[in-house]
Amino acid sequence: MAKEKPKKNLVFKNKKAFHDYFILDTYEAGVQLKGSEVKAIREGRVNLKDSFVRIIKGELFLLNMHISHLSTAHTTFRPDERRDRKLLMHKKEIAKLFEKVTKDGITIVPLKLYFNSKNLVKVQIATAQGKKLYDKREDLKAKTMQRETQQALKNYK
């Protein structure tokens, strides 16, 4: 019997979201995909950088997420790379999100795109509040201080 290779858990993070927003609450949602988009995600052809979530007519949509085409996919069926993708959540959760988003300065951003234990594509979304420029500067200062102390401790040994 041949050994099975351990499946690697592919996770694509939206680092810009952590830089630009204070993360308040996180949620998990399924993503409605077409055709060869799942294979493209497995190959790492995903970009979450400028993507965001909107509630339209009581449904969640992930806008501006880029999934590149596969060269092995059939040429006649190629979905738009930046098309709106529907997110799958319960109506009660969507209603709670809508309630939070109607407050000033609160938005919904995707944080991660990954495959769960059942091998389904999931996206972790979060309610977030925008950071001011001075907040971003303070975060950068804290990160550099943390990095310098770690480096000093490493060199001390």
Can I get a quick summary?
By secondary structure, the protein is of the alpha+beta class.
Secondary-structure blueprint of this entry?
Elements: E1 11-13, H1 15-20, E2 21-31, H2 37-42, E3 46-47, E4 52-56, E5 59-63, E6 66-67, E7 85-88, H3 91-101, E8 106-115, E9 121-130, H4 133-156
Antiparallel strand pairs: 1-8, 2-7, 2-9, 3-6, 4-5, 5-7, 8-9
Uncertain residue segments: none
Number of domains: 1
Average pLDDT level: 86
Distance between the termini: 47 Å
Major sheet: arrangement of strands: 1-8-9-2-7-5-4
- Under CATH at level 1, the class stands as Mainly Beta
Q: What is the percent of helical residues?
A: 25-40%
What's the multimeric state? single chain
Radius of gyration: 19 Å
| Number of H- or I-type helical stretches | 4
- Structural class call reads alpha+beta
Shape: globular
* N-to-C SSE string, H for helix and E for strand: EHEHEEEEEHEEH
Q: How would you describe the overall organization of this protein?
A:
It is a single chain. The protein is of the alpha+beta class and 157 residues long. It has a single domain, classed as Small protein B (Small Protein B, Chain: A, Beta Barrel), CATH 2.40.280. It has 4 helices and 9 strands. The chain has helices at 15-20, 37-42, 91-101, 133-156; strands spanning 11-13, 21-31, 46-47, 52-56, 59-63, 66-67, 85-88, 106-115, 121-130. The strands form 2 sheets. It has a 7-stranded antiparallel sheet. Strands 3-6 form a two-stranded antiparallel sheet. Strand 4 and strand 5 (59-63) form a beta hairpin. The longest helix has 24 residues, at 133-156.
